[in-house]
Specification:
With 290 residues, this protein is α/β, with parallel strands linked by helices. The chain has one domain (4-52, 66-190, 211-285): TIM Barrel (Alpha-Beta Barrel). Helices cover 31% and strands 19% of the residues. It is built from eight helices and 14 strands. The chain has helices spanning 75-88, 102-113, 140-151, 169-178, 217-228, 244-253, 262-266, 270-285; strands spanning 4-6, 9-11, 15-17, 39-44, 57-60, 63-66, 93-97, 119-123, 158-161, 183-186, 190-192, 209-212, 235-237, 257-260. The chain has an eight-stranded parallel sheet. It is globular.
């Protein structure tokens, strides 16, 4: 499939990785990341985050639950260690930004603005500690506040990654765009739980976790479709993309590009395979953008 232009940046193809599923050291052992349109890196916070206690992962039918908790070494380590390696490869790099307060998002954005990261992705599914721990992304006012605040600290394009754990996804998307978001990515994981039959207690130490994988794809397709018909900015669609035809369906729904996540945890080379399968789908069904 031909490349795309997003925010004036050329992508070789419309496929990137989902935040948290690409490792700069390990992933290239399985595929050449330069074959992807872009690389989205794991969420980075202003200081190192330890993440949640173990166990953090639980399998489910057609998916998985994770409660990793955005463990990462912090933005300074990211800038010094991971980013240079990716930019040396000539990659389009999308940095996922995490924070527990608006000031934390802004601190990360300020530092990344001085680097050669191409695009910033705000993870608004983080808990807003100043508002009792409710995720930023479930409240349009909070989404507007964090997006507008981040925009003040960078000239780089900002994509807002939306939480699906809301009643009206369009309302949230409109709030992000009204605050200056240059693009939208969706969906993040759905909140779920599994219980151990032997102990009667949740399998995850955190209790709940984020459900990803094919189980959420129909929900993701619906939300991408609704948002694409409501806002006029590029959309990165994600949620259970396992094949090129899955990716093609997201493009039909209105996505400009797609992100591959859980599939890469099952088959580390899945992102590149999906690029190839997407090309086959385009030859079979035609260009979804026409």
């Amino acid at each position: 499939m031909n490349g795309i232009e997003m925010f004036g940046i050329h992508w070789k193809n419309p496929v990137t990785t989902a935040a948290g599923t690409f490792n700069a050291k390990e992933s290239p052992k399985y595929y050449n990341p330069e074959l992807l349109g872009a690389i989205t890196t794991k969420g980075v916070s202003p200081i190192p985050w330890r993440g949640n206690p173990l166990p953090r992962i639980a399998e489910t039918p057609s998916g998985m639950l994770n409660a990793v908790g955005l463990e990462n070494p912090g933005v300074d380590a990211y800038i010094e260690q991971e980013l240079p390696e990716l930019k040396q490869r000539g990659m389009v790099v999308i940095a996922n930004v995490a924070g527990h307060e608006i000031e934390e998002y802004c601190a990360v954005v300020r530092k990344l603005d001085k680097t050669d990261v191409d695009i910033l992705e705000l993870n608004v599914s983080c808990p807003n500690l100043k508002e009792g721990g409710l995720a930023f992304g479930v409240d349009p006012k909070a989404v507007h506040l964090v997006t507008s605040a981040a925009k003040q600290h960078t000239k780089k394009p900002i994509i807002v990654k939306l939480s699906p754990n809301v009643t009206n996804i369009v309302e949230i998307a409109k709030a992000a765009v009204a605050a200056g978001a240059d693009g939208i990515s969706l969906i993040n994981t759905l909140v779920g739980m599994r219980i151990d039959l032997n102990t009667g207690k949740p399998i995850l130490a955190n209790g709940t976790g984020g459900l990803s994988g094919p189980a959420i794809r129909p929900i993701a397709i619906r939300m991408v479709y609704e948002v694409a018909h409501a806002v006029d900015v590029p959309i990165i669609g994600m949620g259970g993309i396992m094949t090129g035809e899955d990716a093609y369906e997201f493009l039909l729904a209105g996505a400009t590009a797609v992100a591959v996540g859980t599939a890469a945890l099952i088959d580390p080379a899945a992102p590149v395979r999906i690029v190839q399968e997407l090309e086959e789908a385009v030859r079979k069904y035609g260009d979804p953008r026409k």
